[in-house]
Amino acid sequence: MAGTPTFATPPGFLGVQRRDHAGGIAVAGIPLDIGTTNRAGARDAPRAIRAASRMLVDGAHPGSWVDPATLPIADIGDFAIALGDIPASLALIEQQASAIDHLVALGGEHGITLPLLRALRKRVGSPLALVHCDAHVDTWPDNFGQAYAHGSVFWHAIREGLIDPARTIQIGIRSPVQREVWDWTLAQGVTILTAQEFFEIGPAAAAARVREVVGTAPAYLSFDIDVLDPAFAPGTGTPEIGGLASWQAQALLRRLGGVDFRGMDVVEVLPAHDVAEITALAAATVAWEYLCR
């Protein structure tokens, strides 16, 4: 009875034991949550997502027939952050991401996306296309006076030339938002596919719209777990009713073959408010779906 339980897997994401990310895909946790505006605690998400990923280790993807265990994936642990200091944390995240060719990031709050885009923009050499799944536009100039909070990520990304607004699509948007923020976002050229519009056209048409907007440009996927309805993701900091079901998000991701993704993140999981691990499992499955492409 003192041995390792038979149901256990190694502690890395998907049980990955490799730690050297040279020449492959790196999975990293980024436990930052000091820029949140409602519930805090997303710093605990990387550990929870890794634990939930044990459900995904016993076979290949039933659509692509890819088994991530056969891919050159390394779980390199968690990035260092500067406790209590957002700008310093962003600089540290960018520095660490710059050394990685292809990063799958487990947040943490949505603020981590900004330094990840900064690092990837330098590596690619041109503004990135963006597929952004979220309940919120995240294009506020600031959140309650904080310039680098989790709701201002893509305001900065657009202003810094990290993403190409004409090749940016936001999916699942439904939260309250000031009209001037909405109008500014559209005026930059961003395509917004609201949750209601998604429901009306369905995942297949939504995926076709994504491919139309993104085209062949190098792209980034940023998946805020609150794009899902709280019924499917209660463990998040800023839940909004009327969101996507888990199967709809999964159906969308499975139809994005051909998009030239160069990296991704899944963010805003809040384990302290989760129920039966369903939010952490949804986040782990999003990353698994991405890897199985």
Report on the architecture of this protein:
- It contains eight helices and eight strands; from the N terminus they run E-H-E-H-E-H-E-H-E-H-E-H-E-H-E-H.
- The protein has 293 residues and is of the alpha/beta class.
- It has an eight-stranded parallel β-sheet with strand order 2-1-3-8-7-4-5-6, with helices on both faces.
- Strand 5, helix 5 and strand 6 form a beta-alpha-beta unit.
- The mean pLDDT is 94.
- The sequence of SSEs as H and E is EHEHEHEHEHEHEHEH
Number of strands: 8
What is the global morphology? globular
Helix % is 25-40%
- Radius of gyration computed on alpha carbons: 18 Å
Strand content: 15-25%
Q: Helix count?
A: 8
Distance between the termini: 40 Å
- Going by helix content, strand content and strand pairing, the class is alpha/beta
Oligomer: single chain
Contiguous uncertain segments of 5+ residues = none
Question: How do the strands line up in the largest sheet?
Answer: 2-1-3-8-7-4-5-6
Main beta-sheet annotation: 8 strands, parallel
Output mean pLDDT: 94
